[in-house]
Amino acid sequence: MTSTDTALKRVMGVPSLVIFGLAYMVPLAVFTTYGLVAVTTNGHVPTAYLVTLVAMLFTAFSYAALVPAFPRAGSAYTYARKAFGGHVGFLTGWALMLDYLLLPLINYVLIGIYLNAQLPGIPPWIFALVAILVITVLNVIGIKVVRNANLVLVGMQLIFAAVFVVCAIGYAVQNPTVSLLQPLYDAGLSFQGLLAGGAILALSFLGFDAISTMSEEARDPGRTVPRAIILTTILGGLIFTIIAYVSTLVIPSVADIENPDAAANQIMEVAAGKWLEIFFLIAYIAGCFAAALASQASVARILFAMGRDGVLPRRLFGTLSTRWQTPIGAAVFVGVVSLAALVADLNTVASLISFGALAAFSLVNLAVIKHFLIDERRRGGAAVLRFGVLPALGFLLTAWLWLSLSGLALVVGLIWVALGIVWLAVITRGFRRRPPEVEFDETDTDADSGVRVIA
User: Fold this and answer.
1) Which of 25, 84, 381, 445 is the most exposed, having the fewest neighbouring CB atoms within 10 Å of its CB?
2) Torsion angle of alpha carbons 9, 10, 14, 20, nearest 10°?
3) What is the pLDDT of residues 21-37, one digit of tens each?
């Protein structure tokens, strides 16, 4: 059963939003790319995280500025559409869909890989399939279930992170083979390598964008969502940096990493032995479940916003479940797409995700300048700093990271954008019409859709 009511329930406060964002970021995601980034940065993973944190903070401030102006589901899609029009908004949402659709998928792949490593008699695709079914059902049932599940799963990750940090520091004290500054800076640090590593790590900060998709389910979104965005960015960045720092103290030399793809297992074993490696596996799988829950909820709401506006088929994407008041069609669609995890290659999927995120982040920064300084004509030193200088720096830093992506990611990402342009041409009849837009108006609604459609 579906409902034409397009009002989502407001049940989330700042703590719930921060937990949601941290679940999306996955505190233990450090270990997913640790070996790769260690090789790329010559062992300076924590410094790369600090560089990325600074860049992402500028963009987080841009999101925080736009949320009170446009407190609706849709994230960067909504902001770009409001600032630059329907065509740019559509392409922004299309670019975001690339990484949002792949983020649940990559977590299902990881669940299959890690559980298969412990139970090799069971194929990884079976674990992935079970996870897809469970998480899709949870997302259909409602955001309260996602919120409560995330609280438990994020809590488990944070407990493990605390235990690991203590074990790693204890190991470093007993085996002082590296200076405390080496993980951050030494003669082997390459600026180009640092940027390349930072481009990879930008994926870790998608949690603050995910929070903005919950604007219609947050209490007092103009206040709670901006606070949660900034808090999540800072907390997540510091957690990543600390974990990466103590990991480098355990194995300081890149040459000593036996397998970059499985560097986490080696770090755990060296730091405290087999028991910590098993604890890591449990916490990491919990993190993958939390990330899949949060990412599938977010992309479902982006598809819901686009379907509600008639940019995507409204019957499938723009309706809510009568019983649970969740975007059931969009949630099930994401679950179907995630079935690609049964055959997908982890490295290929991981190489594609950054493109859409960094492209959308760039447009969000530009949207702040366009909306506040150009459209609203805000003036004064404070306005120029808040709505001009800061987002401009955010745009430059994000674009710099975007250009540091691999050639494969750039090529495939541009192909995806080209497909989006083709679909945009179809729905606008050769760009002769604007993409349909929707304004919510409780006093003047269309009888069939519950929204007022602007041609």
Assistant:
1) 381
2) 10
3) 877 677 777 887 788 88
Please give the Cα distance from 326 to 104 (Å, whole number).
18
36-39: long-range pairs with CB below 8 Å, 24+: 36/200, 36/260, 36/261, 37/197, 37/200, 37/201, 38/248, 38/254, 38/257, 38/260, 38/263, 39/254, 39/257, 39/260
Could you tell me how far CA 406 lies from the centroid of its own chain? Answer: 19
**Phi (first) and psi of residue 252, to 5 degrees:** -75, -25
Taken in order 421, 419, 100, 311, the sign of the CA dihedral is: positive
Place of tokens 């982040």: 361
Answer yes or no: are the C-beta atoms of 202 and 13 closer than 8 Å.
Answer: no
Looking at mean pLDDT, say which of 182-191, 236-245, 291-300, 349-358 comes out highest: 236-245
d(CA 177, CA 80): 50
Asked if the model's pLDDT at residue 292 lies above 80, the reply is yes
How far apart, in whole angstroms, are the C-alpha atoms of residue 264 and residue 244? Answer: 11
CA angle 230/232/236 to nearest 5° reads 125
Are the C-beta atoms of 73 and 221 separated by less than 8 Å? Answer: no
Assess contact for 231 and 162: CB atoms under 8 A. no
Question: How far, in Å, CA of 214 to CA of 345, rounded?
Answer: 30
Pick from 62-66, 169-173, 319-323: least confident = 319-323
pLDDT tens digits along 92-136:
878 877 877 888 888 898 888 878 877 888 998 999 999 999 888
Residue 203 is given by DSSP the state G
N residues, the chain:
455
Q: What's the whole-number mean pLDDT along residues 280-289?
A: 83
Q: What is the largest CA-CA distance in the chain?
A: 71
How does DSSP classify residue 152?
A: H
